[in-house]
Amino acid sequence: MRHLAIGLVGFALDLTGCAYALHPMVRPSQHSIKLTLEAPARYRIRVLEKEYAVNVDGTAVLDFPATRQDCTVYLFNLIPISGGKDPRDAKSISVLTGDRTVKVLSMNQVLKLPVDASGAHLLTIEGR
């Protein structure tokens, strides 16, 4: 009887095994950003491989691509054993002047910046 019980438990655990959770896709989006510094038109912003010019008033409209968080793996469909990384946490946005990078941010960091009345995310660059 004991061997049968152990066999049934082993069989049940074998059936459950690991499960993968595929996270929903985050749609592409546009976000306005405003650099608060002197002579903002000397700067440009790079998102991944695409560069955007900064207007004289310090604003630029950035395109964030569609992304999907990595799968999360669960043991027995309950215990997370590897978490899915959010690609929007990667430092993929650079503020540049000339050939110099002055600030590097993630998409999620940009979305957490304060917003002005026009809806632009305000980014202050210190000491430039």
Please provide a written account of the structure.
By secondary structure, the chain is α+β, with helices and mostly antiparallel strands. It has a domain at 28-67 and 86-124. Helix content is 16%, strand content 45%. It has two helices and twelve strands, in the order H-E-E-E-E-E-E-E-E-E-E-E-H-E.
Task: Supply the key terms.
single chain, 128 residues, alpha+beta, 4-stranded antiparallel β-sheet, 3-stranded antiparallel β-sheet
Strands in their spatial order, largest beta sheet: 5-4-10-11
Note the quaternary state here: single chain
Mean pLDDT: 84
| Terminal Cα span | 77 Å
Number of helices, where a helix is a run of at least 4 consecutive DSSP H or I residues: 2
SSE pattern:
HEEEEEEEEEEEHE
Instruction: Supply the helix-strand structural class.
Output: alpha+beta
Short description:
The chain is α+β, with helices and mostly antiparallel strands.
SSE topology:
Layout: H1 2-16, E1 18-21, E2 25-26, E3 29-36, E4 43-47, E5 50-53, E6 59-64, E7 67-68, E8 72-75, E9 79-82, E10 91-97, E11 100-106, H2 107-111, E12 121-124
Parallel strand pairs: 3-12
Antiparallel strand pairs: 1-8, 2-7, 3-6, 4-5, 4-10, 8-9, 10-11
